[in-house]
Design a protein that fits this description.
Chain lengths: 361, 241
């Protein structure tokens, strides 16, 4: 084919990706394997439209988060957006069902989600934010305990194993810990927000600079705060006050931090008892850029893919903003990133006999 | 294996002595060769101590009792010499696990990488410069390698300008009158001076940073933390001279 000929081919919009037969089949395969896993654990599949009201999506989170969404006006002049993720839609669908007397909802989904991006799809799929990507995930609404959270992590890990992915690392954190810890250490709340944004971006140099720029000379240095946060390991099952020399500037916040810590230690013990401690580490600097999380948060990383292949957490406050207060926890796999990680280990070339594929051992 | 992307040129030249003084395995034969990929020498750390520049005695002490790097398969180091602007790309895609590149490049690229450490090397300033006769007059056209940062800067000053993205020799744009401002990195200022240009404003100080791929940082945490800690100690030791 010569490329210097003018052709009447038509371009794709920015961020849109085509899948040719082999890849399309591969994606469907990954989705099915993960959905089978969910099905075995009693999660039922639901689906809904790609557009939600911006107001719906914004419940329980900061207005600035809408910046990354594809927003348009509907015919009646209301702002709608292509869903950036499935959790708000699931919460919207679940609230009436909960009000109707259901105590527990276990739903799963496999849907496309959307973000604004300036990068061509071929670049942003594997790292960073793709304009359109596929999420296969679950939401477990109703029960709340360390055991439930641990079961969710177990399911997430066994899904990865079912796909045959080996080199992955699960990193667990707590949505409230870093914030409470920094506030209790005497940092003003506005600054704490900036610091959390730095942690979410992974800008540790910026984190140290902001802390060290504070006028309060009694503050610990940025380096100290950062290394304390990243080294605290709930698997050690020690009391927080035995691990670090603490003199909280704000005693009630300090109590809060210690409360979070005790709960993390219990959770770590639960994980250990369920044999989940391999390939799992705690890092309390891990911060998600979604504000509705209230409890544990986690991300899973795989070799060769620059962004998490699975991510989720506990959001006990979100359902209340949809009119049916209930605790909930959920996570999603990022299918295209999994595809990238899997194609590194030549998953595609393995013989495929339907239904049986992927089971690793 | 750990892959390290180094920004070719001044960043790599300036950081390599620090890298060596931190007693980290260093790329073999990087000076003589024109190749782009280097493997770390495997002759153990003792061999490197000879090459330590400056404060060798103090730094050697830091490494006491530590196991060497680059001996086992998992800890082999591979170095990529890349164009600075490509380093964040390599790192964000995970082609390289960690990278060493200027803050200016990290900011301009907007790529998602973890920024672990300020290496305090290859220090320079991002400046706005131009011909003396344009001083104090409103800016119209700005030539730069940093269109994103230049746009942020002029917007923050409430100035609407036209940005002219160029690949190099930015000074030329001001000299021949293509632009009335240039927005570029200034090290000593001698290139500006030689071309009859003056600095109007210093926007920010930049220096080399240790960056990491998000996934590598999680899966190879121990190794990357150790590198970061050793470099940190060397920086402190050198600052204390």
């Amino acid at each position: 084919m010569s490329i210097d000929v003018v052709r009447k081919w038509v371009d794709r919009p920015l961020g849109m990706q085509d899948l040719f037969p082999q890849q399309a089949k591969f994606r469907r395969k990954v989705e099915s394997v993960l959905l089978e896993e969910f099905d075995e654990h009693g999660f039922e599949m639901v689906s809904c439209g790609a557009f939600e009201y911006v107001d719906t999506l914004l419940r329980g989170r900061a207005a600035a988060e809408a910046e990354a969404w594809v927003r348009v006006f509907d015919t009646l002049g209301r702002t709608v957006a292509l869903r950036p993720e499935m959790t708000p839609s699931i919460a919207r669908m679940a609230a009436p069902v909960l009000s109707g007397g259901n105590k527990e909802i276990k739903w799963c989904y496999a849907e496309r989600v959307y973000h604004r991006t300036d990068d061509p799809a071929s670049l942003s799929w594997v790292s960073g934010r793709a304009a359109e990507s596929t999420q296969v995930g679950v939401e477990w609404i109703g029960p709340s305990s360390h055991e439930v959270d641990a079961k969710l992590l177990l399911m997430c890990q066994s899904g990865l194993k079912r796909l045959g992915l080996k080199d992955w690392q699960m990193v667990v954190s707590h949505a409230g810990f870093a914030s409470a810890f920094l506030s209790a250490s005497g940092i003003e709340s506005a600054v704490v927000d900036d610091l959390l944004a730095m942690l979410a971006r992974g800008d540790y140099v910026g984190f140290r600079r902001i802390v060290d720029g504070q006028e309060d000379t009694e503050l610990a240095s940025g380096d100290v705060l950062l290394s304390v946060l990243s080294k605290l390991d709930p698997f050690s099952s020690s009391r927080l006050t035995d691990l670090i020399h603490v003199s909280w500037k704000d005693a009630s916040l300090g109590k809060q931090v210690e409360h979070y810590w005790d709960s993390l230690v219990q959770f770590a013990a639960q994980l250990k008892s369920m044999g989940l401690a391999n390939q799992l580490t705690f890092d309390l600097t891990l911060t998600r850029d979604i504000s509705y999380y209230t409890g544990i948060v986690f991300e899973v990383f795989a070799n060769g893919v620059g962004a998490p292949v699975a991510l989720g957490g506990r959001y006990d406050g979100l359902l209340a903003s949809f009119g049916a207060p209930a605790p909930a926890v959920g996570f999603t796999y990022e299918v295209e990133r999994l595809m990238a990680a899997l194609s590194e280990i030549e998953w595609t070339t393995q013989p495929t006999n339907d239904g049986e594929t992927g089971a690793s051992e | 294996m750990l892959t390290i992307a180094l920004a070719k040129g001044r960043t790599a030249d300036d950081v390599m002595p620090l890298w060596t003084s931190a007693l980290l395995p260093k790329p073999e034969g990087m000076d003589e060769s024109r190749s782009l990929v280097f493997h770390a020498s495997t002759d153990g750390l003792a061999g490197h101590a000879d090459g330590v520049t400056g404060k060798s005695a103090g730094n050697a002490g830091n490494a006491d009792g530590r196991s060497g790097f680059g001996e086992s398969e998992d800890e082999a180091f591979r170095f990529l010499l890349a164009k600075p602007a490509d380093v964040p790309t390599y790192v964000s895609f995970g082609v390289a696990d960690i990278g060493i590149v200027g803050k200016d490049v990290v900011l301009e690229s907007g790529r998602e990488v973890y920024e672990l450490l300020d290496l305090k090397k290859a220090e320079c300033r991002l400046c706005v410069a131009g011909r003396p006769e344009h001083r104090g007059k409103p800016a119209h056209r700005v030539a730069t390698k940093y269109p994103r940062l230049a746009d942020q800067y002029f917007r923050s000053r409430g100035e609407a300008v036209e940005i002219i993205p160029l690949g190099g020799s930015i000074e030329l744009a001001a000299v021949i009158g293509l632009a009335d401002r240039i927005f570029d990195l200034v090290q000593t200022g001698s290139t500006l001076k030689a071309n009859g240009l003056v600095i109007f404003d210093e926007v920010m100080d930049v220096s080399a940073r240790l960056v990491a791929n998000r996934s590598s940082y999680r899966t190879k945490r121990r190794l990357i933390d150790e590198i970061s800690a050793r470099l940190g100690e060397s920086i402190t030791a050198q600052a204390g001279v």
